[in-house]
């Protein structure tokens, strides 16, 4: 009995302890809820209404560009930029007041200020005059948007002269224009390249300039001046038609982007990661507290395939030889192009053009003409013509044809530079027989030639057959170069038989200098058409001068196609090209005598409306090619005793081998002038 009583009293005691503990917990919870709702309720309600905006971003330096030996080609020079960030509720009058203050501290370019900008500024600064532009009835009936547009339409030139005749006010208008361009809570550049004096004045008055700041920035500089500058490309505002696609990638409307050539091609690699200010705002858009700063990062660095020493030699040689050609009686020869490729990898070793500008009375860099302008190239295409003859079965190794003028009714006699008599395929290349190529064309077309006889049928599909085989070398098609644009040349279509014959000697369809470089590289490397390219490697941005050791990416050799010709056929044409620069009757033998390297190539002369285009393609060393060249000099008045194409080629080959084993100079860097903010 005693034990049973003890159990009955022990259990209720434990339950009482548990109930007391639960009671205390609920009491604490109720007390806490009361504090949150009553004491801190307003604070938490305000926090719940806050929104986070990650919109204030400042520009980051772009990646640099280096040559294949690590020498800086495109650099960034430190500078300072005046920036402005406005809140979502910043009024026009407040921005105008800031613009007026800034006008006292900086000089400002007013060229970008448009008529519409001036009209908007006129309305803001002259409210009474602006209101008088509309009648009371118009103000009553029209919507605010239509009323404003009518005000804009009624502002006259004499009204705007109130601004344009006052340099100080025009400066204010230009500054406010830049301030209005940016989005709310977005860093907008007002002026790049602040002087030390401007930095000092602004810094002293930052307290009275809400939203204004001075940010470190960088400008593109070119240590080698104008050398290859065109191919590097330019920076500019995002084109309107591309704004949507750039916005998706995280760009802002006022960002500078690559708009041409390498800057555009590799924009995604070169662009930096912006420094970001992360704001917390209330419902009205007013920032609360200090923003969180997230540092930016410079863009990746590009190592290009070019050798800047060879590039400079190329540009010098082009100008010198073009000057000589003009002095020899060719006043219309106003440009020259040359390209050097590694035939095994497609790497562009040097790539240039020179043009005489009558306006400047000087020679200017004109590299983009190598991929944007196309010409009739003349006999340099005859390697492709002979290989087409092999492939279609109309000729074989050693096939002999008679070189004498071809006479077709209603067509000017078609002949070589002289009657060469019986020639085979190798001699036809060595001595540059036109007639041999004409006869290949006639055979492909099934034309049973009889002199001065009309009505002989021929197959127009021969055009397609020839172009199909030419395309395998890159002639008449895109080379695939890593550039945003390139020209493919002009296809002359299907014309008369005589034009088919001209196609076989490079005087019908047109090609670019770059296509010629890819064509000769394909022959030099044994039949692989390889994509030409400027990019060699991508390196992570270095925190110090020089390249980082961290390679992000590399350009792999890209074989676009293997030509459908046998190794024996290619060896045969290579032999023919060797004879051109080494044979007893080679058209370029005398220009390549005495060199300490072996070589092969093909000369070309195209007779065109403006005169003559002189060309050359070749490679060296012959046994194991390291460099393939294409040279194009259009618009000469005469080709008689003119050697500009061969002279350029020989000098470029020599420059390559002379520079090949030379120690490479240290990379020049941009001048880094220390700029301090007082």
Q: Can you describe what's shown?
A:
This protein is of the alpha+beta class and 678 residues long. Helix content is 38%, strand content 19%. It is built from 24 helices and 22 strands. Strands 2, 3, 4, 5, 10, 17 and 18 form a 7-stranded mixed beta sheet that branches. A 6-stranded antiparallel beta sheet has the order 13-12-11-22-21-20. α3 (92-102) crosses α9 (167-181) and α17 (382-392) packs antiparallel against α23. Mean pLDDT is 89; it is low at 1-9 and 670-678.
Helix fraction by DSSP (H/I, runs of at least 4): 25-40%
Shape: elongated
Mean of residue pLDDT values: 89
Largest sheet: 7 strands, mixed
> What gyration radius follows from the Cα positions, in whole Å?
37 Å
Task: Describe how the helices and strands are arranged.
Blueprint: H1 2-39, H2 41-48, E1 51-58, E2 65-66, E3 72-84, H3 92-102, H4 115-125, H5 127-131, H6 136-141, H7 144-154, H8 157-164, H9 167-181, E4 188-192, H10 196-204, E5 212-221, H11 229-232, E6 235-237, H12 243-248, E7 256-258, H13 261-265, H14 267-270, E8 275-281, E9 292-294, E10 301-304, H15 308-327, E11 335-341, E12 348-357, E13 362-365, H16 369-372, H17 382-392, E14 401-403, E15 421-423, H18 425-430, H19 434-444, H20 462-471, H21 497-503, H22 513-524, E16 528-530, E17 535-539, E18 551-554, E19 559-562, H23 567-582, E20 600-608, E21 611-620, E22 627-636, H24 644-660
Parallel strand pairs: 2-10
Antiparallel strand pairs: 1-8, 2-3, 3-4, 3-5, 6-7, 8-9, 10-17, 11-12, 11-22, 12-13, 14-15, 16-19, 17-18, 20-21, 21-22
Helix pairs in contact: 3-9, 15-24, 17-19, 17-20, 17-23, 19-21
């Amino acid at each position: 009995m005693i034990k049973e009583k003890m159990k009955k009293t022990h259990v209720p005691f434990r339950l009482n302890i548990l109930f007391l503990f639960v009671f205390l917990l609920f009491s604490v919870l109720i007390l806490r809820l009361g504090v949150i709702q009553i004491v801190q309720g307003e604070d938490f309600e305000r926090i719940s209404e806050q929104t986070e905006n990650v919109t204030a971003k400042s520009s980051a330096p772009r990646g640099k560009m280096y040559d294949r030996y690590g020498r800086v080609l495109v650099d960034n020079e430190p500078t300072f930029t005046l920036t402005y960030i406005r809140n979502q509720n910043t009024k026009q009058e407040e921005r105008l007041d800031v613009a007026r203050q800034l006008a006292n501290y900086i000089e400002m370019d007013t060229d970008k200020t448009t008529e519409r900008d001036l009209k908007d500024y006129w309305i803001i600064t002259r409210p009474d005059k602006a209101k008088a532009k509309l009648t009371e009835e118009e103000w009553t009936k029209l919507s605010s948007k239509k009323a404003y547009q009518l005000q804009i339409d009624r502002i006259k030139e004499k009204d705007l002269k109130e601004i344009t005749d006052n340099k100080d006010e025009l400066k204010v208008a230009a500054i406010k224009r830049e301030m209005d361009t940016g989005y709310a809570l977005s860093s907008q550049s007002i002026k790049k390249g602040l002087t030390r004096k401007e930095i000092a004045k602004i810094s002293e008055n930052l307290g009275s300039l809400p939203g204004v700041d001075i940010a470190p920035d960088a400008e593109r500089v070119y240590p080698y001046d104008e050398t290859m500058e065109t191919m590097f490309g330019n920076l500019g505002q995002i084109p309107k038609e591309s704004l949507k696609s750039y916005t998706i990638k995280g760009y802002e409307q006022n960002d500078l982007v690559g708009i041409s050539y390498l800057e555009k091609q590799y924009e995604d690699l070169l662009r930096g990661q912006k420094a970001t200010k992360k704001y917390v705002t209330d419902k009205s858009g007013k920032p609360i507290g200090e923003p969180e700063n997230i540092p930016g990062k410079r863009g990746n660095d590009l190592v290009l395939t070019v050798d800047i020493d060879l590039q400079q030699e190329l540009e010098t040689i082009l100008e010198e030889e073009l000057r000589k050609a003009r002095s020899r009686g060719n006043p219309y020869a106003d440009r020259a192009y040359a390209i050097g490729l590694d035939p095994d990898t497609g790497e562009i070793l040097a790539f240039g053009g020179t043009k005489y500008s009558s306006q400047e009375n000087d020679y200017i860099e004109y590299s983009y003409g190598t991929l944007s302008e196309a010409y009739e190239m003349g006999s340099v295409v005859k390697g492709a013509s002979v290989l087409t003859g092999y492939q279609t079965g109309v000729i074989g190794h050693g096939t002999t044809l008679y070189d004498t003028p071809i006479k077709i009714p209603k067509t000017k006699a078609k002949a070589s530079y002289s009657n060469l008599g019986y020639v085979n395929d190798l001699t036809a290349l060595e001595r540059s027989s036109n007639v041999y190529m004409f006869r290949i064309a006639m055979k492909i077309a099934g034309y049973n030639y009889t002199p001065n006889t009309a009505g002989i049928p021929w197959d127009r599909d021969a055009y397609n057959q020839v172009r199909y085989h030419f395309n395998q070398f890159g002639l008449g098609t895109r080379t695939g170069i890593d550039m945003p644009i390139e020209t493919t040349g002009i296809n002359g279509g299907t014309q008369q038989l005589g034009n088919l014959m001209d196609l076989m000697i490079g005087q019908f369809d047109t090609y670019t200098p770059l296509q010629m470089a890819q064509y000769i590289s394909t022959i030099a490397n044994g039949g692989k058409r390889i994509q030409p390219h400027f990019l060699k490697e991508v390196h992570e941005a270095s925190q110090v001068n020089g390249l980082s050791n961290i390679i992000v990416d590399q350009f792999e050799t890209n074989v676009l196609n293997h030509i459908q010709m046998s190794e024996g056929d290619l060896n045969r044409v290579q032999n023919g090209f060797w004879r051109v620069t080494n044979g007893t009757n080679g058209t370029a033998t005398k220009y390549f005598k005495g060199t300490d390297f072996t070589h092969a190539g093909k000369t070309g002369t195209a007779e065109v409306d403006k005169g003559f285009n002189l060309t050359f393609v070749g490679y060296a060393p012959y046994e194991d090619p390291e460099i393939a060249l294409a040279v194009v000099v259009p618009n000469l008045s005469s080709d008689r005793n003119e050697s500009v194409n061969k002279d350029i080629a020989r000098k470029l080959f020599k420059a390559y081998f002379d520079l090949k084993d030379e120690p490479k100079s240290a990379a020049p860097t941009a001048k880094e002038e220390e700029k301090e903010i007082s």
